Amino acid sequence: MDDYAEDSPLFDLRSHLNGQMICEGMIFGPFGRMTSTFQAEFDIVWKGNSCTMKEAFVFNDGTTQHREWRLELDGGGGFDAWADDVPGKAHGEMSGPAVLFNYPIKLPEASGGYTLRAFDCMYLTKGGTVVNRSQFRKFGFKVAELVATIRKKEVV
């Protein structure tokens, strides 16, 4: 994380991931072929150092997925998080414009029900968009990769 400490802008989860957000992305298989696309809406509410993040995904094949994260900042640049499809606890670190987040995730039964290791790298751009790159591994081998953008939802 020291690589990002002096970079800017400073990624503050409470201000940059807060309120209504739109996420758009693609999922790639182990050989780099795009396997699906998605759009999601996030509803993020902070109370002090705790937040609830509700995610609602719609994939290009019409399937939907919902997840609710519960997150606690530790006051020292780190955080822990929990979700129903995350066995145990997730842990993340913030530094400069970067948030690195590591956790196990259980796939839906329709996708095999396997537990994968996820490594999320989120970077805040100067324009306020968050670029997310996630790798998913099984037995140390990359089985999928996700690339997405997250931005504030424009309210008209």
From TrEMBL:
Top-rank lineage group of the source organism: Bacteria
Pfam families documented for this protein: DUF3833 (PF12915)
The protein's name: DUF3833 family protein
UniProt organism field: Sulfitobacter undariae
